[in-house]
Amino acid sequence: MNSPLSLAQQIDLQISANGPISIATYMGLCLTHPTKGYYKGADPLGAAGDFITAPEISQMFGELIGFHLVNVWQQMDQPRQFNLLELGPGRGTLMADILRVACRAEGFRDALKLKLFETNPVLTGEQRNRLASYEPQWLENFEQFDEGPILVVANEFFDALPIRQFVRKPDGWHERLVGLVDGKRTFGLSPTPIPAETMPTAIAEAAEDSLFEVCFAAGEVMSRIGKAVARQGGSILAIDYGYARTQTGDTLQAVRDHRYADVLEAPGEVDLSAHVDFGALAAVTQEIGLAVQPLATQGEFLIRLGIAERVKALSGANPASAEDIRIAHDRLVGKSQMGELFKVFCAHSPGLVPPGFAA
Ligand SMILES: C[S@@+](CC[C@H](N)C(=O)[O-])C[C@H]1O[C@@H](n2cnc3c(N)ncnc32)[C@H](O)[C@@H]1O
What we know:
About 35% of the residues lie in helices and about 25% in strands. It has helices spanning about 5-20, 25-30, 55, 60-75, 95-100, 110, 120-130, 215-230, 280-290, 300-305, 305-315, 320-335, 340, and strands at about 20, 80-85, 110-115, 135-140, 150-155, 165-170, 170-180, 185-190, 210-215, 235-245, 255, 260, 270-275, 275, 290, 295, 340-350. The strands form 3 sheets. Strands 2, 3, 4, 5, 10, 14, 15, 16 and 17 form a 9-stranded mixed β-sheet that branches. A hairpin with a 2-residue loop joins strand 11 (about 255) and strand 12. Helix 4 (about 60-75) crosses helix 5 (about 95-100), helix 8 runs parallel beside helix 9 and helix 11 (about 305-315) packs antiparallel against helix 12 (about 320-335). The mean pLDDT is about 95. S-adenosylmethionine binds near residues 53, 55, 88 and 117. S-adenosylmethionine (SAM) binds near residues 45 and 89. This is SAM-dependent methyltransferase, MidA family. Keywords: Methyltransferase, Transferase.
């Protein structure tokens, strides 16, 4: 039932009744509460929304990923049926750009079984409008694949999954919680220490007051998809801001109207996200038996896939847009823009050589 209380009031009531909640519980409620979560409401993307993503900046991003996927499909001997899954497809822009290019490869479109995984009903509607001709199926879990290999793409999906945070103290690690002080939402620490030996060895030497983040949801999604890919063959390409090795540091952030905002102030009204621990995701997929490419920056990946040639071809075909295309190129690959902050992760069946990574 749709409660007349705002999400902020519901969260505050829950804390008053049961005590402080973990950051993961808070983030999960803020983002995906069934009726009032941030990702259950209006389309958050684009100039009129809260943030803009790479596929919304330029078609070149999706087109180059389309070339990448065709190459992997060809390395698998062009299976007559395969699954192409996108996690968190937003407006469907990335997939539309991918398929416009990839379906030029003979046999690709006939073999395609398009799968989408999305929580936002408004965005699902936009994906339906955009991609209807490819007859997509929206997955409810990761057991619903058709026969044949599985190619997975995810841009800015894993950063939206809830994280937990822990702070190091002399007696161990204490979970960071959201509680109420004088009626105001405030961060605090659980009084119960977690022994340092139970934390990853990568942070064993962390100094006092260091903050460690872990995203169990990301590991769980990667594990489920990874197992399906290990069974049926294929690859997982994930692009996000993040880091290559498990480390300490507070990366939880709120964004509203293209500006940073307070994480605790307006539950459900601001985007919350955290950097992705690609080292942890690599460990999960390697344990399942997949190979993992060395993490690339988004700039390196797009340059290796030939973004410079794409700029020339598009500018040649649309001279009036040449300046806009150059600006979009710089936003995608520039070191001070998205080029270095965003990373590209790829796990795949052993034997494949996905393009775009260091040999
Ligand atoms: C930051 S947007 C990125 C959209 C798109 N990939 C792009 O690059 O424009 C995150 C996407 O993941 C979806 N999403 C977030 N949390 C999700 C969840 N728990 N389950 C399924 N989809 C989710 C959002 O609705 C949205 O489509």
